[in-house]
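user: Please review this fold.
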Amino acid sequence: MVQIRCKKCGREVNSKDKYCPVCGNLIKKNVLARAVLFIIAVSIVFYIYPKLVNKIDEKTHVNYSDPAVSITASRLYNIYEQNEPAADKKFKGKAVSVTGEIGSIGKDMIGKFNICLKIKNNLCGIQCFFDKAHKKNVVAQEKGVNITITGRCDGKTGRVILRKCVIL
């Protein structure tokens, strides 16, 4: 148990106590410090981290004319499901052309447009992110249509991620 000092009598008290057992003073928790730490953590997650990822993403070049592999969305997802480290070795950081059915079309919190390719009953097995310059092409697409997208494979985090994508 953590011991803190009572501000009135100066005695050490259990931090879980509501009142000082010696003088009866109300023990106040440092709520302000917790609130400040929470705000800093939220700022890092929603503001700083996306900016850093975006800067790294801008410096990366993808050779669209010569993708490492052309593959269906279902096949790519299944390869990652069976053996993620081996799939990373084969696809991660390389240009990949993926063909599949559009499950959804959206935009993330930093303004990057994305198309999710459907895998069986999963509406988003492959998530393809596009720069803002490709907004017109992404918005023009329709859910349920088959499409081929080329982008840099960034591995799997719940779904397989392709970045710096273009629609072929």
The CA atoms of residues 78 and 119 lie 9 Å apart.
